[in-house]
Amino acid sequence: MYAFGLEEAGHYGQAEEIGLRAVERHPRDVWGIHAVVHTYEMRGLFGEGIRYLDARTEDWADGNYLSVHNAWHYALYALEAGSIGQVLAVYDNTLHNEASQSVAMELLDASALLWRLLLIDIDVEPRWMALAQAWAGREVGAYYAFNDVHAVMAYVGAGRLSDAERLVKEREQWLSRADPSVTNHAMTREIGVPVCRALIAYRQQRYANVVELLAPIRYRLNSFGGSHAQRDAIQRTLVEAAIRSGRHDLARALLSERINLRPICPYNRRARARLADRLGDTDQAATALARAEEQAAVGAAALG
């Protein structure tokens, strides 16, 4: 847990060291393994992450609460490596299938992964339909805004916009009568509802509205839960909306910030290439795309 705290605070090298020490003492400490893979994610060390999880498969992949979540991290590595087939294999075999128990944490991971694919225009509609149905079967009211956002991702991805709108309206009604001292009240009002509305607007291609909703809160997303890695799906939504709405200066600034924080991230480079294409800068687009492929190749090599 100390290692994970260090990672979320940005001390990646120290977090890795502490996490590895924890796992050395207790090889099946899946929280320790989880902390280590977060440090690889945040530094773009996809090859190291893939090899680490592959080497320790017997320690984390079965019989524990984090088995699906650590598989989600593996899928994130594969996504950065450009291996969509591997991403979908992890999703179908582990994240969500007919045998899944519809546990909230597992549904969160499934939504977050499919949403990343939606942002890069990869169609996985049959998976969205099944996932949305799973979310619909476990709605428990205004319990946790972070869950609500991921349920809306699933509804939006499946084209069930009326369900997404209904959930948002129910939360707005709850805000009007709930005790403001309840933690989830502020989380829902300040982050949950705006993010849900942004997701709906994204599916409706109202990209300017997405920017209006997400830009003011992008530095406060941590206040409604999750990790940096989990919340990055929302940050990427803002990047894509900025590009697609013609807010090119904002998109350039967002990508510059992201690349400085995480130099090794093929997604960032590919997004920069898309932005350059829209601006007619073919040379910069080619350079950014080549850099993305170079970075992705490292992870692809680890996948074998």
Characterise this structure.
- With 304 residues, the protein is mainly α.
- The chain has three domains: 1-95, Alpha Horseshoe (Serine Threonine Protein Phosphatase 5, Tetratricopeptide repeat), CATH 1.25.40; 101-245; 251-304.
- The protein is built from 17 helices and no strands.
Topology:
Blueprint (H helix, E strand, L loop, with lengths): L1 H7 L3 H14 L4 H14 L2 H10 L1 H4 L6 H14 L3 H12 L8 H16 L5 H12 L8 H13 L3 H17 L5 H21 L3 H8 L13 H17 L3 H14 L4 H13 L3 H22 L1
Share of helix, binned: over 70%
Rg, alpha carbons: 19 Å
Distance N to C terminus:
32 Å
Give the ordered list of helices and strands.
HHHHHHHHHHHHHHHHH
Mean pLDDT figure = 96
How much strand?
Answer: under 5%
Low-confidence stretches: none
Classification by helices and strands: mainly alpha
Shape: globular
Major sheet characteristics: none
Number of helices: 17
Q: State the domain count.
A: 3
Secondary structure tally: strands = 0
Features:
Serine Threonine Protein Phosphatase 5, Tetratricopeptide repeat; 3 domains; mainly alpha; globular; 0% strand; 304 residues
In short:
The chain has helices spanning 2-8, 12-25, 30-43, 46-55, 57-60, 67-80, 84-95, 104-119, 125-136, 145-157, 161-177, 183-203, 207-214, 228-244, 248-261, 266-278, 282-303. With 304 residues, the chain is mostly helical. It starts with a helix and ends with a helix.
